[in-house]
Each structure stands twice: as C-alpha cells, then as structure tokens.
Amino acid sequence: MNMTTHKKLKVFIFLGLLLIIPLICGAQEGQYARRFQNGSDLYNLTRWHEAAVEFRRAQEIAVNVDDWAAALYWVILSELAYSDYGSALRDMNELEQIAPETTYSRDIVYHRARVYYNQGFFEEALILFNRYTESVNDEDRVSAERRAAAFFWMGECLYSMRQFDEAEKFYSWVIARYPESPKVEASAYRIDLIKHKKIEAQLLTLLQLSHEEALRTSEDYQRTIRTYEYTLNLYQRRLAELTNSVSSLDFDDSAFIADMLSADESPPGSLLDRAIQLGIDLQDILRDSNVGGGSW
C-alpha cells in the first residue's frame, strides 16, 4: 500500500511539472519580451546605459540560444554607443564562442573593426573591414549601405596611416559605386582634404628648395666678399711696402728709382689706382649683398 502510494505521488509530481514548466517558460518569455522591448525603447531615446541594463536582464532570462544571442548583441551595440570598448570586446568574444553561427556573427566582424579603429589599431581594423566587405553583397539597400560604410572605413584606416593615395581610391569608390550612401558626403570631404594636403606638400617642397637656394646664394656672396677683402689687403700691403721703400731713398738715387720702377710691372701710381677701384668694387658688392641676399 505504501509502495503504491509512493509511485502515485511520483506520477502526480511528474504530471504537475509537465503542466508547470510550460507556464514558467511562458512567463519567462513574456518577461524576456518586456525587457527586450524596454531596452529597444531606451536605445532609441539614446539612453544607452539604461538600454544596456535592460538588454542584459533579457539575456539572463532568455530560454533559448537565439533570444540569448539577440539580447547580447544589443548589449554590445549599447556599449559601443557609449564607447565602452573593453566591455563590448568581451561580449563579442562571448557571443562568438557560445553562438558562433548566429545571424549576428557577420555584423560582429564590422563592429569589432570599428572598435579596433577607435583604439588606433588601423592595420587590424583594415583587415576586418575587408573581410566584412567580402561577406556582404549589394543585393538590397541595407546591405549596400553596410558595404559602402565598410569601404569608407577602409579609407579612414589608410588615411590615418597617411597612405593618402590609397585612401583616396576607397573614397572615390564609395562616391562612384554607392551614390545614395550616407558616406558619400564624408568621402567627398576627405578627398578635398587629401588634395589640399598634396598641394601643401608641394608648397613645402618648393619652399625648402627656395630656402636652400637662398642659403647657397648667401654663401656665394660671403665667399666673394672674403675674396675681395683678401685681395684688397694684399694690395694695400704691397702698396705700403713700395711707399716705404721709395721714401727711404735719397733724391740723388733717381737712377736707381727709375731702374726699380721699370723692373716692376705696375708703377706705384697704377697700383694705387687699382687699389682704389678695388675698394669701390668691394663697396658695391657689400651693398648688393645687403639688398639682394639680406632678406631670405
């Protein structure tokens, strides 16, 4: 009698659980839906911190993998919205580990690339953006806009790495291939900036060449001035030596003076005239150097 009663009790409990479990699951699903909707409303109001909390609660009470993945995906989007990149990366890793084949896996590649770009890892971001473009086609407007955005961010990565010519190709591709994309205006703006940078680089090159030419010209003036100063000093010493030699002789030694002057290539008077002319030339050079080379 006791054994029969015990068996009946087990059967009764089992049947009760069969009836209660659906009720519990239904209640959890209803609570999940409310939490998820609250998160969506808060996200649309740009109250991203509060939205993340609601999506996280929905994730915790999800009754299947799809609901769990959806809630966690929106937690990630909320974290990205308020720039909590560390938490977003951790949640991305968890989503890819537990539910690698969900519909959100492809978009996670794009969002991870955005995080890498914002953190300054431009080469890693470029690789992921390229992977994303290979997984998305232009079959509809939404997909086309996502692909255009990825191409734009590939240009941004190259622009940040100062590879302006390569970056310009991606911006031009967005403008030509996706004229309806929201990234067209930003791409055109970047192309204008690249053109200005190229002009700036050319002007800097010309300025550098002009500066180097001015330095060379100034050095030439300085060398010429030093040469004239040396020559003038040399003539002045020779003239002084000849003058002293003449003044030390007696008047009766005129024959000797005549012989000395005839042996010299230039008489003292001619040598003096040349020294005076050399001084005039030196003054002209000094004046020209102040006018032509003094303002570089």
Summarize the structure in words.
- The structure is a single chain.
- This protein has 296 residues and is mostly helical.
- Among the domains are: 31-103, Serine Threonine Protein Phosphatase 5, Tetratricopeptide repeat; 210-292.
- It contains eleven helices and no strands.
- It has helices at residues 2-44, 48-60, 65-81, 85-98, 105-118, 122-135, 141-160, 164-177, 184-247, 254-263, 268-292.
- The protein is rod-shaped, with a radius of gyration of 45 Å.
- The relative contact order is 0.04.
- The model is unreliable at 14-25 and 253-267 (pLDDT under 50).
Largest β-sheet summary: none
Number of strands: 0
The succession of helices and strands, N to C, reads: HHHHHHHHHHH
- Structural class label: mainly alpha
Distance from first to last alpha carbon: 118 Å
Task: Give Rg in angstroms.
Answer: 45 Å
Q: Which descriptor suits the 3D outline?
A: rod-shaped
- Helical content (DSSP H or I, runs of 4+): over 70%
Residue ranges: pLDDT <50 for 5 or more in a row? 14-25, 253-267
Number of helices, where a helix is a run of at least 4 consecutive DSSP H or I residues: 11
Summarize the structure.
By secondary structure, this protein is an all-alpha fold. The protein has helices spanning 2-44, 48-60, 65-81, 85-98, 105-118, 122-135, 141-160, 164-177, 184-247, 254-263, 268-292. It is 84% helix and 0% strand.
